[in-house]
Each structure stands twice: as C-alpha cells, then as structure tokens.
# Entry
Amino acid sequence: MGCLIRLALQNDAGDISAIISRALREANAEDYTKEIIERIERNFGPSAIIQLIDKRTVFVATINDRVVGTASLDGAAVQTIVVNPNVQGEGIGKRLMAQIERTARERGISVLTLASSITAVSFYTQVGFRAVRDSYYGDERTITMERSLD
# Structure
C-alpha cells in the first residue's frame, strides 16, 4: 500500500482539517448529533491545526504523498487519531498508533491516556486500551481510556 508515517508540517493543516471533518461527518454521524459534530469540527479548522502542530507531536500517514490520516501525542495523552474514511480498515490507524507508542516510549512515558469517541472505542480496544470512565461535555459523551506501555 505504500503508507508512510511522518511528522506533520504546517502545510499539511488543510489536509488534516479536511480528513477530520470528513471522518466526523461520515464515521461519527451514527453516534453523535449534527450539532455535536459541528461543534467538534469548529475546533479543527486549518488555523487550529497549525497551532496544534506547534504544541503537540503530530504525525500524518501518507499514501503517494497524500495525507490520509493523522495522530498526535500531547504529553502522555493520545489525541486526534483520524483516518480518511476511504482507507479506514486498512491498518493505517494501527500504524499511526504504533508510531505514537514508539514516541511515548522514547520519552519515558509508561501509560498513555485518551478520550475516545463512542465510534472509536472498538479500535482503541483492539490496540490495547481499556475503558476507565465515561465523561460528558454537555451532551457529548467520551470514554476515557488508557494503556500501559510496559
């Protein structure tokens, strides 16, 4: 398939934003209302992505130099693992997670945490995370999950 994982560049921000928006609208639509999706989507415009690239360690997955997925690490927190719906189920999310885990281990992080959407719980369970608790941000439910890297 030729999928490569690399650090995100600021000029990837538009592509990252578009993938997040599309995944929210297509993959998360069964689990969240349109209003929740629109609210989340507003947090991931290109200018917001540029700021995140400056603050976090952000990776992108590319196929033929096209961005098809993203994941980031903020301290010990995994953030925003999203794959283009066209290529979901092809192992790209697992490759992004493996890169996050390698980076965390290099930094001496022994436990990763994340806030999962309802939609992504099964993916995170497959890659070794376990649910710790439910959290609500207004009417938006997320599941706090963690994984030991030992």
